[in-house]
Fold this protein.
Amino acid sequence: MLKYVAKRLAQSVLTLLIITAIVFSLMRLMPIEGYFQNFEKLDQNQIQVALKSMGLLDPLPIQLKNFFLQLFQGNLGNSLIYRPNVPVMDIIGAKAPVSIFMGLASMAIALLLGLPLGTAMARGKSKFWDKFGTAFIVFITAVPAAVYYLLVQLYFTDWLGLPILFSASDPSSWILPTISLSLGNIAYYAMWLRRYMVDELNKDYIRLARAKGVNGKNIMKKHVFRNAFVPMVQYLPTSLLYTIAGSIYIESLYSVPGMGGLLVNVIQRQDNNMVQALVLIYSAIGIVGLLLGDVLMNLMDPRISFSKKGGAR
Amino acid sequence: MALRHKKVAAVEDSINQSFQNLSDKELFEFSDFDEGAAERTGYSNYSYWRSTFQVFLKNKLAVFLLFLIGIILLFTFIQPVLPGQRSATQIFNNASGMQLRNLQPGSEFWFGTNSIGQDLWSRVWSGTRTSLLIGFAVALSEAVLGILMGILWGYVRKLDRILTEIYNVLDNIPQTVVLILFSYIMRPSVSTLIFAMCLTGWLDMARFIRNQIVIIRDRDYNLASRCLGTPTRRIMLRNLLPYLVSVIMLRMALAIPAAIGNEVFLTYIGLGLPVSIPSLGNLINEGRVLMTSAALRYQLFFPAIALSVVTISFYIIGNAFADASDPKNHV
């Protein structure tokens, strides 16, 4: 197992380097107008000077070499346009905690509501909870998030008398954004848990347990839930780590000063250093999350093995 | 479970009844061997697709929604040529040349007008047409590319390492970067948007198919086929693909609402279609700006309702069809 993890990690580093190199090159394909807010007013000379100061006039391989040299020294550079000359890590460091706290809170809510909902749906097929849950899941997964987030903000702020805008010190302003953020995950967890549990309920060992006389509650808790939860474990590390990314809709609707939309924003403003740093962070999270998920799954269910070689060609 | 008990009980009842009609003498006599009757039990006119449709037709809600979508689809195309319909992009002025801005829904403008005096009714229909077109096109090309790559990725062991690496790289390049670059190279239009969405959209499908293939590729029947020397191509098309019909159907049906939702998202971050081409994303975005004033909320509601009806219908139809195409649910 350890050998496998080490190998995967080494491979991940290579993948990360390729991703950053590609994104780096793609950003250099952007038209130079994007680097200036008042492009029409500048003369050719000023433009050349500014481009040179950003190091954009060197040939691409040399730019790439400089970037990687800096990166290995742990220096992600300064923001160019978003907040000029502020170190990239400072900007991210100031914004990330808000998104992480909100994301963690919403994940906790999603797990606390989604898992019981999924269990209730699996237990009583075609009973009230199943119908209610199905309707909820269909609505949340089919309707784009942009629409139901708007509806939540529109009505619940009035009905519950909650503040429309976010402020970190006011706990009541956390409620709506956090709950909206968790809606999608509640539906997701409930849907998959129900499906895995129903699959599990039809297996022979459950029938045996029933025949043995184990009561329904214990079958659900000790056999069905534990086995059904294994495939879901794989998503948890990724979603946990991705809480840092925030949500672009939620954060712009409630004006939360978090990370949501930061990547889109800096890409549009062509702040190369910011883009590279964010892409590096996000893709590292994606890759590490996947690896952690596999490891966690292996820990929960030792029958799943990744080092084994199958027989297909 | 309850359903099965009912069925079993019904069969038992019918057997009991047919026995009751026989006298004791008949019951304890050997019956003659009837070749025709023996063959009847061995014969089945089972057809996969017919059973699929039969099961699907039993789901009343899904059939109703299929009709609804059919009618909506038809209507988006005939609406512009119907008499008395207005153009979706024309700005209407009143007698003194003022724009008819933010008119409430009424008998003249059924859904009211928007903030620059365009007819919301025809804009919603035109937008639904655009969004459906995007949804269909993206889902179809995602399916074709995704299935092809997914099968190769899952079944051909030599390709696994390379394709996994390619997937990891492509999956982590932000869609925004790709879209911005494309909007510089090509003019923003429906086809540009579809192209850019397909460029990254097939990845999910490919990974999904790959995971499914990995699960079934070493089942005994595939092993047997390989031992018999069946060409790889034939194994892929005849052994693997038919097994996956139901999950592929589900993914495809879900890809349509997802593509429509993605269009809304792209419009939201300012990379969508130009305002001159109405789409549901555009309309919702326009409506969102006016959300704070209660009187103008109809401009958000009408497109949002149209969008929800379309996406929910596709979701339910897709689920029903996926259930129906699973042979386990056939009679």
About this structure: The CA atoms of residues 156 and 162 of chain A lie 7 Å apart. Chain A touches chain B at residues 11, 15, 18-19, 22-23, 26-27, 29-31, 125, 138-139, 141-147, 150-151, 154, 248-249, 261, 263-264, 267-268, 275, 279, 282-283, 286-287, 310-313 (CB under 8 Å). Chain A has a mean pLDDT of 83. The two ends of chain A are 24 Å apart (CA to CA).
